[in-house]
Description:
The chain is α+β, with helices and mostly antiparallel strands. Helices cover 23% and strands 27% of the residues.
Amino acid sequence: MANSFKRTLNAQNEEVSLHxxxxxxxxxxxxxxxxxHQIECMNPAFGRGKAPSSNPIRPxxxxxxxxxxxFVIRQGVFIFTLEGRELRLSAADGPIRIQKGLRxxxxxxxxxxxxxxxxxxxxxxxxxxxxxxxxxxxxxxxDCEKTNTAPSLPQLLLFLDSAxxxxxxxxxxxxxxPASRLFGLLFGRYLGWALGYKASYDEYYDPKRAKKA
Length: 213
């Protein structure tokens, strides 16, 4: 059954935070070719002493079905993992463009002290990542943490499916990516719906306040 905890009303907030403020996100009006323009601020020390896979700030290894994602580092140092290759990048390295279908994740270098700031955009604009997606998944994860509730995998997969995002399975992408897509469809879109979960909640997202081009 769907989580029964009371959701925090933060749809009206300009900024959404996670992990007690260790990760914060806010949104700008996206350019015409982008579906989202997000600014993330992260505290690198929050992941210090943890393995990368256990770092709460690090998104799960994933890929996008239809969009190119662009990261512009404004401050600090980030570690990107792209198809198993690890890259340590800063503002001096310029924009990082990740093509659709490439498995990746990122997090601020925990050995640094400076607040890490990155701008994230995605294109094309007609599908995929959006302020709606980020507000919902961040709001949900923050509520789970506050109530000491384990996040529901079907709920998370439903959020991801709504943004054309899949968790990255290990192995050759030619086989792993379609298997991951099928997994998300079955356990997110269909099982999640059957369990009463939604892709968006009024407490987390108000379309009237969304930053739109």
